[in-house]
Amino acid sequence: MSGAIRDLSQLLAQMKPVLQDGVYALVCVSHDAERMDLPALVRIREAEGWTLVLEESIAQQAQLTVLFRAAWITLQVHSDLQAVGLTAAFSTALAQAGISCNVVAGAFHDHLLVPFEDAPAAMAVLQAMQQQAANLSVPS
Fold this sequence. Notes:
This protein is of the alpha+beta class. The chain has 4 helices and 7 strands, in the order H-E-E-E-E-H-E-H-E-E-H.
């Protein structure tokens, strides 16, 4: 893929985390559920059922049990799907700040689902990581 970045230092320096508007819900529905017509943003088939990520209001309207109430952060950097270390770097930094993180990798960007109430702190951690990496990559 053209434009995809594989180098970890460049990925960190160019992360550009963006907090998406809204509240998101992770739910699980059975394999034979009639709920598959819901406008999910992510669908993952597991042995136990379908995990869906959708807007919280849609989950509530459908009377689904919300397993995780999340804020959605997108890393704007175009990460190569074979890049090594990006997930480990940001998940370690978030863990050190006491913030859980569920990751969905798209073809172009990584998407982080963090507890909704921790979104400002998560953004601060990610922005500090990016700034530190950018400062290290500036030639002297």
